[in-house]
Amino acid sequence: MCEPHFAREATPGHACPRCAAALSMVNHGDYRAETCPDCSGILMTIAELRTMLRLCRQSKPGSKFRPQPVNLDQLTEPVHCPGCARVMEVQPVYGPEQQILDGCARCGMVWLDSVRAPAMV
74-95: string of b/e by CB count within 10 Å (b at 16+)? Predict the structure, then answer.
């Protein structure tokens, strides 16, 4: 249920903020996201991210993990929002594996580099 394997739909028009490839809209039933076919990154709204995390965490109640330090190599390149082109803010997402999330408060979008959703929960 939490695996980021989605049914692909038509491309909505955003370009990947990492490699500029056209993103494809994918539907996981309860939430939607755009994915990059080249670098496997995921673009979604903050609301969709909350839904994904809630559903994934509900499927793994009582999961215990020890947060890992942030990999500072992931913080070297700024990510520009595909919606407004501003630099997105970097945020850690705690889970069994440390993930880095780039977010745009203006557009309400988040970018996850080559993420596997279960690693975030």
Answer: eeeeebbbbeeeeebeeebbeb
